[in-house]
């Protein structure tokens, strides 16, 4: 037998073996590896620089590497977004801390599995009012615009309560659709002050407004957008952990690669690059990806104390920190000497272990 004949014979045998193997796999109800598709995951986000980890994970292929086909769905405010999570239209959402806690307090089945950002809200006024509105105490008798169920809104009401100012009677709070609407209300004089989040605080400054108070000054280190799911979504542990691994990888990447991070953000938020960079790498933006249990507990007490919610329901069941811990541990195990992962492990012990 010639060499060519021998090769042809062996190729036919190999082809037959592959065919038999594929048929056997199908008979057992198992799809061949090449035919397995990535798991589709719908993720709700807000068009803000603080949500950059979603954009980075998508553009850098971190979701893909975890076997996830992520569809990012934009919302203009937290109230609409959290409604979509509760209704099962989203698999994961990141819509502040206020919105999930309000819905949870009313009986919704929600679980906090991680975080995207913290702080980053600011109170803005027209320049001519910057001399008279310099602190929370100066808001008495004023008109203030906020975005419904924004995290900064709850921080503001808590600070007013601490200052012995009744937010229900001593001033007028108007809940608007989104930060651009708040900015326009302030510029037009319809309200005296407005609460927005980044990068809209920077946009407000570009349009001539002044920042007088930041949410981080009122409640240092407060959490903002938490990663939330329903209990049903937790059943697929591999998907949840893979998603959190991708988010953690994105956090690390963003910390080490500014240009590529801004490239990713720019695909989803149409603002000047310099503004995007200033917004994401701002000292006023906290970028941890952990659930921040202790921060959320404090936030809950603030909301209850300011009569934003009743708080009759026990809070502890909302936390599901296991998937995050497993995702973090797996990444730290892959690179045990990397200081980034060691810092995240320390952060977890400080903020998420009671």
UniProtKB/TrEMBL annotation:
UniProt keyword terms in alphabetical order: Cell inner membrane, Cell membrane, Membrane, Signal, Transport
Domain Solute-binding protein family 3/N-terminal: 40-272
Signal peptide boundaries: 1-37
Keyword Transport among record annotations: yes
Intracellular or extracellular location(s): Endomembrane system; Periplasm
One term under GO cellular component: endomembrane system
Chief location category: membrane
InterPro entries in UniProt: NrtA/CpmA_ABC-bd_dom, Solute-binding_3/MltF_N
Keyword Protein transport: no
Pfam families according to UniProt: NMT1_2
SUPFAM superfamilies per the UniProt record, alphabetical: Periplasmic binding protein-like II (SSF53850)
Family recorded in the similarity comment: Belongs to the bacterial solute-binding protein SsuA/TauA family.
UniProt-recorded name of the protein: NitT/TauT family transport system substrate-binding protein
Originating species: Oryzomicrobium terrae
Lineage: Bacteria, Pseudomonadati, Pseudomonadota, Betaproteobacteria, Rhodocyclales
């Amino acid at each position: 037998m010639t060499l060519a004949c021998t090769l042809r014979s062996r190729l036919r045998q190999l082809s037959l073996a592959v065919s038999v193997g594929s048929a056997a796999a199908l008979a057992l109800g198992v799809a061949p590896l090449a035919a397995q598709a990535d798991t589709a995951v719908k993720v709700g986000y807000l068009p803000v620089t603080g949500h950059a980890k979603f954009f980075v994970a998508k553009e850098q292929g971190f979701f893909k590497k975890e076997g996830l086909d992520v569809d990012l769905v934009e919302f203009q405010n937290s109230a609409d977004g959290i409604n979509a999570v509760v209704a099962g239209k989203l698999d994961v959402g990141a819509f502040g801390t206020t919105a999930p806690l309000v819905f949870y307090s009313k009986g919704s089945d929600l679980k906090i599995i991680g975080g995207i950002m913290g702080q980053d809200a600011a109170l803005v006024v027209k320049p001519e009012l910057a001399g008279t509105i310099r602190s929370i105490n100066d808001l008495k008798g004023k008109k203030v615009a906020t975005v419904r169920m924004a995290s900064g809104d709850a921080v503001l009401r808590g600070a007013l309560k601490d200052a012995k100012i009744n937010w229900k009677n001593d001033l007028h709070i108007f809940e608007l659709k989104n930060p651009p609407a708040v900015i326009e209300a302030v510029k037009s004089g319809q309200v005296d002050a407005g609460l927005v989040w980044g990068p809209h605080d920077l946009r407000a400054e570009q349009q001539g407004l002044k920042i007088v108070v930041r949410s981080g000054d009122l409640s240092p280190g407060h959490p903002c957008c938490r990663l939330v799911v329903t209990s049903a979504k937790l059943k697929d542990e591999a998907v949840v952990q893979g998603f959190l691994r991708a988010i953690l990888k994105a956090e690390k990447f963003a910390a080490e690669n500014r240009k590529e991070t801004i490239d990713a953000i720019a695909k989803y938020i149409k603002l000047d690059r310099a503004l995007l960079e200033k917004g994401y790498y701002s000292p006023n933006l906290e970028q941890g990806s952990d659930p921040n249990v202790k921060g959320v507990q404090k936030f809950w007490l603030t909301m209850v104390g300011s009569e934003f919610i009743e708080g009759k329901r026990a809070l502890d069941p909302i936390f599901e920190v296991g998937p995050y811990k497993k995702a973090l541990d797996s990444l730290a195990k892959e690179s045990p000497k990397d200081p980034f992962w060691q810092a995240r492990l320390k952060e977890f012990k400080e903020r998420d272990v009671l």
